[in-house]
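Dear all,

This email documents one entry for the complex benchmark we are building for the journal club exercise. For each entry we list the sequence lines for every component of the assembly. Then comes the predicted three-dimensional structure of the complex as a token string, followed by one or two observations. Please use this as the template for your own entries, and keep the labels exactly as they appear.
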Amino acid sequence: MFLYIAKRIVLFVPTFLMVSLVAFGLSQCSPGDPVDRLLINSENDINWENKKQYERDYRYKARDLGVDRPPFYLSLLPRAYPDTLQQIVPPDRRRAMRKLLDQYGNWDAVHQYMETYDGFMAHFSQLPDSLGKDDLINLQRHFLHLEHIYKVAAIQYEWEEIGKDLEKNPELEQQIATELLELKAAYANLQSTARPSDLMIPSIRVNGLDNQYHNWLVAFLKGDFGVSLQNGQPAGQKIKDALWWTVVLSLLSMFFTFLIAIPLGVYSANRYGQWFDRITSAGLFMLYSLPTFWIATMLVMFFTTSQFGEWANIFPSVGLGNMTASDPFWPRFWQRLTHLILPVFCLTYGGLAFMARQMRGSTLDVKRQDFIRTAWAKGLSPHQVHWRHNFRNAVFPLITMMAGILPAAITGSVVIELIFNIPGMGLLVLDSILAKDWPVVYIILMLTAVMTILGNLMADILYTWADPRVKFDL
Amino acid sequence: MLFRKQKREQRLQQQMDERPKSPDYWKQVWRQYRKNRVAIWALRILSFLAVIALFADFLANDKPIYCQLEGQAHWPVFRNYLVDAGVGKWPEGMSNFDWKEAQYESVVWPLIPYADNNLDMGNSYKSPFDPQKVKAPRFRHRLGTDSLGRDVAAGMIRGTRVALVIGLLSMAVAAFIGILLGALAGYYGDRHLQVSRVRVLLNLLALPLAYFYAVEVRSYVLEESSNFYTQLLISLGWAMGILLLANLLATLLKRLPWLGRKWTMPVDILVMRLIEVMNSIPGLMLLLAILVIIPRPNVFSVMVIIGLISWTGIARFIRGEILRIRALEYIEAARAMGYNNWRIIWRHVIPNALGPVLITLAFGIAGAILLEAFLSFLGQGAGSAQVTWGRLLSLARNSPGAWWLAVFPGLAIFVTVSIFNFIGEGLTDAIDPRRG
Amino acid sequence: MKQSLLFLGFLFFCLLIQPACVSDSPSGGTDATGSDKISVHTRIQAEPDYLNPIMGTRSWTTRVMNQIFQTLVDYDPFTLKLSPVLAKSLPDEIIVEEGPYKGKTAFVFEIHDEAVWDNGMPIVATDYLFTLKALFNPRITIGAPLYRAHLGTIQDVILDPENPKKMTVVTREPYIRSSYVTGFYVYPEHVYDPDGLLKDIALADLTDADKSSKLAEEEPKIDAFAKQFTSTRYTKEKEVITGSGPYQLSEWIAGDRLILKKKENWWGDQLADRYPMLTAIPDEIVYHPVRDATAALNLLRNKEVDFVGRIPGEPFSQLQGDKKFQEEFDLHTPNTTIYNYIGINTQNPKLSDKRVRKALAYCIDTDEIVNTIKLGGAQKITSPIPPQLDYYHKGLEPYSLNVEKAKALLEEAGWKDTDGNGIVDKVIDGEKTDLTLEYLLTPQNIDSRKIAVLFKEGARKAGIDIVPTPTEANLLIRNRGTGDFELLILGAGVDLGMYDPKQYWHTSSGGNYFGFGNADSDALIDEIRQELDPVKRKKLYMEFQELLYDEMPVIFLYNTRDRIAISNRFKNFKASMKSPAIFENYLGLDAQANTD
């Protein structure tokens, strides 16, 4: 037994690492820049008139989040890539430089092009307005655009437009002619010194232990779950807060599932083929196919307000009620109870239908087996036979379901919590994923994996305890 | 969910162990299946839905099927197909024609004379029983309209197609991966795949290289190309090519003494670990997480992702079944006769394991349809251009009084999910006649 | 077996009453209707992220914080005029006569003599100075950068040697918004910087981009302060969060509610008659984070919250027809300062002709948007300035659907359907190009999706092919920034301060995403920013709006109205145009409370 558990735990390590890699990989593939996302809040549309200030804020934020480090222990990149790409700010420039590099494979030339560009812009911004303000503005627009574009056709187009504008203003052309030539030369140089072969040659870089993945994994193992990107709250705290209601809902629904499903299944199996059995079987099957989100929407729509008549306003609205800890116990208890009726119902009926069908099936199996016949023969009352022996048979699905409860408690039920506005794990999962709050998503993924494995292990151990005939392979 | 899946798997496993095999096995299954009246009805309804999905354009369309206009006969629905295919052209002045307003000599309208995206701003939020501003009872919105006056019935018909396609294709993806991996794991187990050292080493080398040339080197093309999916296929081709090359090389080199020595590959452990990893990540969460990182998800990406996360059950069945079959005498005989492994797997093992896979597929389709509906309900998944049942249902949440937006699409989801469940159940009973 | 079931049942009963172990304040009854205490229950869209004004930027966070913290001056929600809050009066605008800042425009504030912190210490000018130092601390990267961009005009603060409650805020240049933005929040220095980390650092160094960057690298105190200031302790804990406002945080049950209690003997009560911004009637404000609008309405019907704002159009129009609902609740649709627009990339060769842009504007059925999609909760506009303000140009006619005009304009600009595919085309750079335009929208926004359907339909009739492309919000913002788009739809809000056109429309601004402007428009914008005479300024604003209307770099669609349902027990309620429309501190049960 001990050996078995030890083996399972050892086998769990690679799974755990794989899950962590999946979680980390997902966050790396995510579009958009996490730093920008925190700096430029899309609800408040703000631009940075002061470019310097933006770059500085960006750098600090990136450092705070640790995203200026390389992502992984090793990286497999084309030889043309420099090690410092990650540290270039702002991100738009980084992107353009990477794309140029992807085309030409010569980092020095790309770098030189951008430096020439900066030099040109410094010169350009010094030009006096007397050269023709409108022309300057038009040109500036094209030049600013140059920083972000990388496709040959697009750059060609901008050069042509710039050429057209300059034709109209020879004086201005004279002022920037040398610098412009330099810039064009830098771009031409970029194209002529292209080293496509460098793009095809892989190079492996060892980034050491100070990388994003390692830092995160070590922190996780130490119990430091990081902070949410949405509000800087510790992720662990967020999960702890959300966990409560999900656990309550799961336990309540499991309780009712068993309370109803076991007797119902056994009862209808004992009336096999009779009308009661047929009707419950059909009914349960329908119940099993009813989409929860549909039923929940309909229940909220029809039975929580008086919109369809006063009689229909049976249940309280969604949420958990408005009483606080300072309110007296019983009214508060009662309010919570009434608010939980619908969510628990929606969470229960599907599992209940399935469970009852299981019970019916396994009871039928057992009924045909020998030991029941023996029990009958021994003269036990039908009641005793049904309940004692058949119930024992239900222990297995019960254990399996218990095992499922652990991970389910971590992920919660997105549907129920969303529709009934219960601040549990399901809502947290949905929110965090949609907001790309990867630190929280990570933690939930990891915890779910741990819980799934633990649940399965526990179930296996309980199986042997429930039925000594079950043996494990080592 | 987890619990249900496992339980079902256990039961199926058990049934397979006891299943009698005979040459006309499938005939017998069908005979058994036919005895189940509900399951037969489920099949009938499914064919009905399939007809709706297939002929959606003729059932709900804003163009007439046939009309006579100024002495000329037109077949606008058919012509639309031609124009979309780039073969035909609209007659002069007909490309932006308002078919509803025309004066016809004679006309045959589809059953629902609206397309799913037709706006009828004068009739927004009309219930099926409300008075509607239409010029003839023929043009009533039978199942009501949404906020922009789009016809719910037309949306339901279009949604049928999306639902069925999603169910079938996503399960096709899942079945492909599941059968492949399950067969490998079951057939070779941990001890039977002997590979020469050079092959192992070369493959270990080729895998990162394949990644490098398919993803890193091609990242610019993949990101910038207007046709992402073609480029993706090319990338896959590169990866395959590199792997193939490595294996060819291995075949040549394995004659060398040290390199040719065999190593045993624990295929089963690897596949089972992979399944465990997949199972310990909640499917819905993984699905949502993948969807938010795709810049512009559409129906096809949803289908593929659903397929990618739901193959584990199939793989486990196939593996279990093969483990059992492998021990049978005729496989031993086939092996003794010198058939190669692939042929044995393909000709003998997989057909035998198909029964339980069919059952899983039926339940899997129901699950996939439900999942997609739920994603649309959340406002994720299929792009905004697609009408799906889930999206119609989600409209009801914004307008609690519009019961018709909740009742009809929900009913459609329910019916479709039910019939696939019934079919799965019928198959289970047919394959294992002892039950029921 | 039965016994164990019973036991399980008992266990669940115990579970249900869990919050007993979360809270530790066994205070008396707080029932909304029970005693004569007034308790206001507010729904907020989400839980506040940081209860720290410099860091929190979300509207629901600001809503809570504005009851705890105070600014020197702010716009009065009812008169819509800039009014004193923590300051005695609006600032005196002066020109500095001596010292290093000679010739600069400056603003003199004086804080109320009565104003004290919770521990009795007077609120003084150094508290304000400290607040600005915290704000300009470059290592604070949450929220603060946003405010730093807004308050960029501030250069330094000069304390008055005689009066500790008086200070002079020096600005870089004359600017129409200075008197508003300088009237920033005031933090208690003794609470937020107990170790005096920022004491020796000069504000003038922090407001200078170069010097502050250097300081951030060299001065460890800057980093230490930022760490402390952004820690959970200073952003979440009720024992620490302290402001000069009428309310204090009394309980925060994560995910469930947030309770503010009125301070006893609050210093502002005695001044409320003379200073309406110091009104604070309710004894308690309870915030309920409820994300889902439908769920919020359900709570309202069951009187678990007192009001709900931003109700979506359809449920609101149902409420309008619900007589029974209106027996207990009033419905309001106040104006807001939020507008929606379709941005056009004028640098794109297909869209560089303003006739094409106007043709696009003629393809949008704005009447249907206002009536059917927004269900009347919007107003057609021609400029970003809220149409209720007196410098909005009322003489310009908003665009609406007119396919014939659109076709005529397209033809004039050289676009014709030469190949019979229903889409107009033109030869651009030697290549025949169809007028097919990619139109970016965020998939989550239901109204945007509906507008896209409408726009596509209207444009199709004029021969323009609009391809609505749902694009994730951050990606859309990035595409806008790099000019990688053709059309996009977005919303934007302005505050009640004078509209500063520079950010979006000046050619030197990084926020000029749509390629608008030339030397004349730049000159006009610069003139507006510095013109302090309201009459002259209004004329300039008119001129500017005419220019926008004619150039059409964006199509202004509509200005949104809020939709509010509020319990009619608040007899004195008046909705405000200022966001968030309802201000809890004014809500009272008597009709004659001082809201005017």
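Observations: The beta strands of chain B are 66-69, 72-74, 106-108, 193-196, 262-265. Residues 16-20 of chain B have pLDDT under 50 and may be disordered.
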